[in-house]
Amino acid sequence: MFWFYAAALLVLAALFILLPLWKFHRGSDATRSRRERTNLLIFTERVAELEAELAAGTLDEENFAALKSELERSLLTDVKALPETTSADSESGKSGWLSVSRIVPLVMVLAAIPTSVFLYHEWGFQDELKLKDIFDRTQTSAENPEQIRDLIFEIGEIIEKDRQNGWAWYFLAQNLVTIGQFPEASMALQRASENIDEPQDKVIVLSQYAFLEYMLADQQLTDKVQAIVDETQRLDPNQVLILQILGMDAEQRQDYQAAITYWRRMLQLTSPGEESELLQGMIANAQQQLTASGQDGAVSGPSVDIELSLAPGLELPGNMRVFVSALEYNGRPQPLAVKVLSVADLPTTVTLSDADAVGPFNLSSAEMITVVATASTSGSANVQAGDYQVRSEGFAQNGEHAILQLQITDQVQ
Fold it and tell me: Is the pLDDT at 91 greater than 70, yes or no?
């Protein structure tokens, strides 16, 4: 289909050159014909005037004959001059468009096709188009090992031509995982991460690389896995797959409070559905383990009670998620503590403390804090246009208990 459209565009470009040339050639012939007709018409009219003067007696026979002879010579001269003035065009035009003004455009049109093909192979993105086709086929070949092996060979050919093609390495890894060749897939993901520079894409590749290495290490957070995790979190501290690794590791070490912290961070990044329900179940189970081990999970330090409600007249769906976050005032954007509820729970009182930390920082780590409550239309903690929000003034927590009253009113623009 690509080559069909390319050929159509070349034909269209050629017509832009050839049609004006053809019209110019036809126009020259038409111009000569009009000049001949005009000269003949003038001659006929002038002879008729002389004959009228002769009949009226204002012109004698001798002068009439002299003037008519002069007109005839003038007509013959004009008619003879027309082919002479166009002889240069005729000599070049008769032989079939061989003038320089016509040959140069024709040569350019003919040269456009091989030149375009050559430049496309030099500068075009045919390998990327081939990779797109391989990606589409990868999605539909998960249950066909033979097709997957064919895809692996095709990707290998692309890598042989360009060993810095990060996406080729990435698609190679996806197909290797499908047929169970995990060590080879991990190597391919490593090469992909080294050759993909866009931060958002690199984070995805690194997180998959970290998870595969974590599983190959029998779910142990080895130095290698930790190094990949650190590199990923420098780009995106909230990458879900990395949080999953850290949560699983914390649960294995029976550090249930840390596991709860990571899973709560995952929960605020997850849309409502089966996955969020699974995370809520894992959090509840970890809290039970804390209680069974004699720990209630309480953390000493500052706390804030937020009496939260919707503004009068503001109607929002009951299942809309509401994120209540404490942030460092004029500081880092990562939340210090978070709780998630729904519009149906409002009005209510929400308590935030160090127990609700979702990362390495908590309420106690900040001198001044502000509280933000967001009703999310997308179900995600990432604030978007159309969400409803309220933000408190900054205040010093002083390691003590504070009480706030907030109403969700303003729509985010």
Answer: no
